[in-house]
């Protein structure tokens, strides 16, 4: 059982109360709070929605917080510290399995593949997956989407994560990259732009993409409590419309133009790296082109979780996914 699932009974009772979204500001503009699981170029459409004024066009003022990890992001949503969470869909399944009376609903897709890359400490000209056998592999947090996809891909290539390599997965999400940089592990699973920055600095080399290997997944979606959708569907619709506008803009514009728009979110990354990473994600189809969370991807997610031994129960697609809102804003 995941540590974050051990939330006290009293906190859960508080979390499932129906609490309205943040109050409207001046001129009828509504303030909304988004918690993103990490800061990553992987989430470029979200930053585009903010910077291009798509939220503003819908009368929404966004306060964006990086909540650093799926456990912390979901706890923030359940305790009403944020209104919307951008996080892996697996977290909604964990909450549902607890028996919540106010389940967390996936209502808008942002990414549709895994966003991590396999990074080697040493340069490898002709990488093959069997080269991981016997090495020390610095993975992601147990029960989180990156780690489950990582194990899924390893097994796909005939590697038993528990037997064929030394798997480290007890390091907090935010500390995985620093741990590798300080000398832990021969291979590591990293998000961008960290993977590319490591490559530029000579601290590692990208040898494979977990996104290309794992197929379509509702990897990162916007979600909120069911009570929020019931009580303030209009705001959720406006939110989704802003995201859809951004997705269309990202689809229709160049990686360079996208990089120019989102560069302010990555002060420590040069514009050339941002453009390269955006192009990498675009070329492998990581950015969802519309907000509908697909059923095939959902079932693939369940398979990945089940293979990792982390699926508490196979939750039906319609139970935790709302496609009505996304389909309506696309009309």
UniProtKB/TrEMBL annotation:
It is found in: Periplasm. Keywords: Signal. The keyword Signal applies. Belongs to the bacterial solute-binding protein SsuA/TauA family. This is NitT/TauT family transport system substrate-binding protein.
